[in-house]
Amino acid sequence: MNSRTALLDVRQMHEAERLAVGTGVSETGVTENAGAAVAREIVRRWPPRAVTVLCGPGRNGGDGFVVARLLAEADWPVRVALLGPRDRLAGEAQHNAGRWRGTVEPLSPDVLDGADLVVDAIFGAGLDRPLNGPAAATLARSASEGLPIIAIDVPSGLMSDTGEAAGAVATVLTVTFFRKRPGHVLLPGRSLCGEVVVAGVGIPSSVLERVAPDTFENDPGLWISDLPRRRDSDDKYTRGHALISGGYPVTGAARMAARAAARAGAGLVTIAVPEIALPIYAAALTSIMVQPLAAPDDFDRLLDDRRISALLIGPGAGTGEQTRARVLAMLGSGRPTVLDADALTAFRDDPPSLDRAIVGPCILTPHEGEFRRLFDSSGDSSGDKLTRTRAAARRSGAVVVLKGSDTVIAAPDGRAIVNSNAPPTLATAGSGDVLSGIVLGLLANKMDPFLAAAAAVWIHGAAAAAFGPGLMAEDLPDLLPNVLRSLDSRG
Hints:
Layout: H1 10-22, H2 27-45, E1 51-55, H3 59-73, E2 78-82, H4 91-99, E3 104-106, E4 117-121, H5 133-144, E5 149-152, E6 173-177, H6 189-192, E7 195-199, H7 208-211, E8 215-217, E9 241-245, H8 252-263, E10 268-274, H9 278-284, E11 289-293, H10 298-303, E12 308-313, H11 321-332, E13 337-340, H12 342-345, H13 351-357, E14 362-365, H14 368-375, H15 385-396, E15 399-402, E16 408-410, E17 416-418, H16 431-444, H17 449-467, H18 476-490
Parallel strand pairs: 1-2, 1-4, 2-3, 4-5, 5-6, 6-7, 8-17, 9-10, 9-12, 10-11, 12-13, 13-14, 14-15
Antiparallel strand pairs: 15-16, 16-17
Helix pairs in contact: 2-3, 3-4, 8-16, 8-18, 16-17, 17-18
């Protein structure tokens, strides 16, 4: 996959640094470049003012000493505070502390007196425990006084592999190096990092071939080459025939999903509905075909049509035995299938039976409540979002899309993508139904399920962001053409 948006955990970043040293890059050079990048970003945003640099005992502190030296050389008034005794520093922290010609004070809230900016170089990505003591007290005072905080790598107290906050406070700017960490895009970490700048520090991109990252931030570069393209030779069947199982009396969810599937590129979309619901669906839909189901085996006969290329059930389907039976029939057909909403909840009492039925391409799109019912049935919902979604994908054999502001898309083979472009306006009833329809439209065009899920999530977020405030779910399908047009121009 495109390595530009790779997210590196602590172990992978350490490995990248180790491999870089093997290519001739020096640790001293990396630290100097890191500090210079932070100083450069500060100077770009603020004129000279009183800055307090909070340094820790490790590599992050070494970066901080470089920042302090470079800002002082540029005639900024700089105050430096160190956590722990100076005589215990080692490596780059010791080396760069030795190059700092000013006073080094013990780290405490008092060092903030008179400060206009604060640089957090205390712990960064290496911390694996809650922030406490003078570090926690000093950062807490910085936040309470509204001082702008610039974090080096990640805000201290933020778990960089998971995005969990363990004493971290909000920053206005985070400067990280080489590639982002998962904690920069997973919540609540994303909301604490402020603006995130990724700076080059001399580590060559070639080291990623050996690091082999398996987590990425969602971006068109990951999937745009696989996005279905229209060809002069296309007809409606070559563009895919999508089938949705529509519900009653809840009909709006399936109708929105159908319109989204058509907008996303499916050549034909059919909704199979109970005969009693035919007038409702038919009156509301024009180009979407509505197939009434009068006899018990009508749905199975529909599945016999080999021109149908992708399936969706869940929006408005109900959680009873009929939904369970249709899910199993769809999965048994071997065709790409999207299971959402009620189709997931229908298996809450027997999740293993759903796992056993998934033998072909399948995408599950749960929100947090549905996810817990299927995958945390033991009551153990511990673990970070990446770990939980990966485990669910591995267990079920499906691509799992755990929805939210930081949607995680995981494949059974361990690959994962974190989405970060979803605006808060997507927190509205029915937006998930539209998402499942976009996934269906891409699957109908034979797009790889993992990439189709990632593309659909990004397109969904981009459409909502383009609309702005006042968004309703039914607005979303008609916003898709502009997003797809922009992707066409990029592709």
